[in-house]
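Structure (tokenized):
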């Protein structure tokens, strides 16, 4: 069986990028054991920033050119307020031909992508969140026709995928709640929880922490927020919380990393830094830009805590990264993250500046609490291992393979199965 994988290999995409590489690591081993083969079929900007050496040994079937025009037209339609009709999915015979000429039997989309249902081939698709339905007040999931375009891709992908991959029970319930009317059966939705990215080590020595601290000129102690500058990441309230602590004569340095590409994220970063200046804490807020993978372990291990009061769930990779590296976690008391974290973090109302401030104060001033929270995080992470992740990925592939080998009646055309 030959599988075409539609990944995100652009590091600026954060969690989906990390998820993609974890799945690809499993797929490489699976193909070697089962005499199968895996080809990468990225679309649009999914490969910006990827280094050539990262693709060593991978066959790449480049669909970017095919989807460049459709992507441009989709963006124009969204700007004009005319997203595609979610009940009239586009079929592209040329994409179908490209994939079939390459001997592809099945398509595995690691994020909501048009490739699956556009190609007409059997496919599975990962759904990481449904925030255009759950939190449409945020412009990153709704402005300029974005909500309509997301609905087009999600509805058709979920309706036609042979298998739908979600992070947890909360994500599964969201899919069934919003798309059950389209015939999505519970057995088609499979849970594949996130893991920390495979490049992140399990332990970090003091030498590495010192190297990263010196490279960035960081203080001996700080709280860390690695998040792209989308409004839902809640940087502004984080800065306001630090200003509350500053007024209480408790100065807590904040280190930020993440992308600010695009107009919305640039505006958000500018507003965050302006707010820090207005509150008199600009010298306590340090933005590093997009930190390379090689430095992330040292940044986590050197932090007094991860502070991550996001408004979006259902689960979060930075929490897993912090747990792996013994970094205490402060995050949001919201559906999905609440279930992910349990007692392994300080949970706060992301809409409450006083609650965020109090959570940071506790972690900053109570070393015993930090140790307890960090230990609980490591224990919770240990309940789900790389072997578990690998087993679940393989289970998805084996189910698809069995249906494919059953012939046209078992797996045909990408329709519901």
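Design, position by position:
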């Amino acid at each position: 069986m030959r599988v075409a994988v539609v990944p995100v290999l652009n590091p600026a995409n954060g969690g989906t990028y990390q998820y993609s590489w974890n799945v690809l690591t499993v797929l490489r081993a699976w193909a070697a054991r089962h005499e199968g083969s895996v080809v990468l079929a990225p679309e649009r900007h999914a490969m910006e920033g990827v280094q050539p050496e990262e693709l060593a040994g991978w066959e790449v079937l480049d669909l970017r050119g095919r989807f460049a025009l459709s992507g441009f037209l989709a963006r124009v339609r969204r700007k004009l307020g005319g997203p595609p009709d979610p009940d009239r999915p586009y079929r592209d015979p040329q994409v179908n031909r490209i994939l079939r000429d390459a001997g592809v039997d099945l398509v595995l989309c690691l994020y909501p992508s048009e490739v699956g249902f556009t190609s007409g081939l059997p496919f599975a698709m990962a759904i990481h969140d449904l925030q255009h339905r759950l939190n449409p007040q945020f412009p990153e999931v709704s402005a300029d026709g974005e909500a309509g375009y997301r609905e087009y891709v999600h509805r058709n992908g979920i309706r036609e995928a042979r298998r739908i991959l979600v992070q947890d029970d909360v994500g599964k319930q969201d899919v069934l709640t919003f798309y059950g009317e389209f015939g999505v059966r519970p057995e088609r939705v499979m849970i594949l929880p996130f893991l920390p990215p495979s490049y992140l080590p399990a332990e970090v020595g003091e030498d590495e922490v010192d190297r990263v601290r010196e490279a960035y000129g960081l203080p001996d102690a700080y709280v860390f927020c690695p998040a792209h500058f989308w409004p839902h990441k809640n940087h502004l309230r984080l800065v306001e919380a630090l200003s509350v602590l500053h007024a209480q004569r408790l100065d807590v340095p904040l280190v930020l990393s993440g992308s600010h590409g695009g107009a919305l994220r640039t505006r958000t970063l500018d507003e965050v830094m302006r707010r820090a200046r207005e509150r008199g804490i600009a010298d306590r807020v340090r933005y590093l830009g997009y930190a390379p993978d090689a430095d992330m372990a040292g940044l986590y291990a050197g932090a007094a805590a991860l502070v991550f009061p996001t408004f979006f769930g259902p689960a979060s990779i930075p929490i897993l990264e912090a747990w792996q590296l013994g970094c205490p976690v402060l995050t949001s008391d919201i559906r999905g993250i609440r279930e992910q974290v349990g007692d392994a973090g300080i949970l706060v109302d992301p809409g409450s500046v006083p609650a965020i401030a109090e959570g940071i104060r506790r972690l900053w001033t109570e070393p015993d609490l930090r140790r307890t929270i960090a230990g609980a995080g490591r224990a919770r992470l240990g309940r789900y291992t790389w072997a578990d992740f690998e087993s679940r990925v393989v289970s998805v592939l084996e189910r698809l393979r069995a249906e494919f080998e059953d012939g046209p009646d078992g797996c045909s055309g990408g329709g519901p199965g």
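Reviewer-requested clarification: The longest helix spans residues 15-34. The chain has two domains: 2-195+385-405, 206-381.
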